[in-house]
Specification:
Helix content: 25-40%
CATH class of the largest domain: Mainly Alpha
Order of helices and strands: EEHHHEEHHEHHEEHHH
Mean pLDDT: 75
Number of strands: 7
Shape: elongated
Strand order of the largest sheet: 5-7-6
Number of helices: 10
Distance between the termini: 99 Å
C-alpha cells in the first residue's frame, strides 16, 4: 500500500512528518540547554511567529497539569520546570550544591547586578572587605564581565553582569530584579569605555575583552595605586 502520511522538506532537504507550528517549537525547545531568541527559534522551527505557538503550548501544559512551562529567559525562550518541583529537583541534583556560590560571592554578585557598572572600590566599600578573589571567581564562571573603565584617576575597571547570570537566575532582564533595600540602582556616574575616548593609546574595545584576559582586572586598581604612590619619589 502507498504511504499516505504527509511530509514536508526541512531546511537541509530531508523529509519529516508534518508538524504544527507549536509542535515544531516544542521539539526545538526540548533539545536545547540555553535560551533561544525569537529569530533563532523561528528559523530553527521553520515558523513565521513563535509567540502564538508558545502561548498555545503553555495553555496546553497548564490544562494538562504539566510541571513545566516555556518562559522568556535572558532575551530568549527556554523550557523551565515549575517552582513546585524545586524540592524534588534539589534532591536529584544534590551533588551540584557543592559548586554553588558562597555567601561572599552572592553578596558581591548582588551588588554588581544592582549597581552596574560598578568599580571594585565601590563593591568593597559596600561589603567592607576586599573582594579581588571573589571577582576572579565570578569572572571565571562568566557571571560578570568587564563593562568598561570609569572616568576617574587610573581608569579603574567597571563590572557588569552577563547573559549567563540572567540565564542561571531565571531573569528576562536586569529590570526583573526584585527591589532590595540598600541595593537600589544608583545613577551612573561613569560611562563604559566604548562611550569615552581611549587613554594612552588603549583600544576602545576593552569592554569586550574575553574573560580569560579579564581575570587579572580585579587586582589592576591596586597595582595602579601602588605606581601612583611611588611616582612622586621617582621624580625627586
Amino acid at each position: 500500500m502507498p504511504d499516505t502520511s504527509e511530509s514536508t522538506k526541512t531546511n537541509d532537504g530531508a523529509e519529516a512528518c508534518e508538524l504544527s507550528s507549536s509542535q515544531r517549537i516544542e521539539a526545538v525547545l526540548m533539545t536545547i540547554d540555553r535560551p533561544l531568541g525569537d529569530k533563532a527559534l523561528s528559523e530553527a522551527a521553520g515558523v513565521d511567529s513563535v509567540k502564538p505557538a508558545i502561548a498555545e503550548l503553555n495553555d496546553s501544559y497548564e490544562s494538562t497539569g504539566r510541571t513545566f512551562r516555556i518562559v522568556r529567559i535572558a532575551s530568549g525562550w527556554q523550557v523551565m520546570t515549575m517552582p513546585e518541583s524545586a524540592p524534588i529537583l534539589a534532591r536529584l541534583h544534590a551533588q551540584r550544591q557543592q559548586s554553588r556560590l558562597s555567601p561572599a560571592a552572592l553578596e558581591t554578585l548582588s551588588i554588581i547586578a544592582y549597581r552596574q557598572p560598578v568599580m571594585r572600590a565601590e563593591i568593597e566599600a559596600i561589603r567592607g572587605v576586599a573582594c579581588g578573589e571573589v571577582l576572579r571567581g565570578l569572572l571565571e564562571r562568566r557571571f560578570i564581565r568587564i563593562a568598561g573603565r570609569a572616568e576617574e584617576l587610573g581608569r579603574p575597571m567597571l563590572y557588569g553582569t552577563t547573559k549567563d547570570f540572567l540565564r542561571v537566575f531565571g531573569l528576562a532582564g536586569i529590570d526583573d530584579l526584585p527591589e532590595v533595600e540598600g541595593l537600589r540602582r544608583a545613577p551612573q556616574r561613569a560611562k563604559p569605555l566604548k562611550e569615552s575616548a581611549p587613554v594612552d593609546g588603549e583600544a576602545a574595545s576593552v569592554a569586550s575583552d574575553p574573560p580569560v584576559d579579564a581575570e587579572s582586572a580585579a587586582v589592576e586598581s591596586d597595582e595602579s595605586n601602588e605606581e601612583q604612590e611611588s611616582s612622586p619619589n621617582e621624580g625627586n
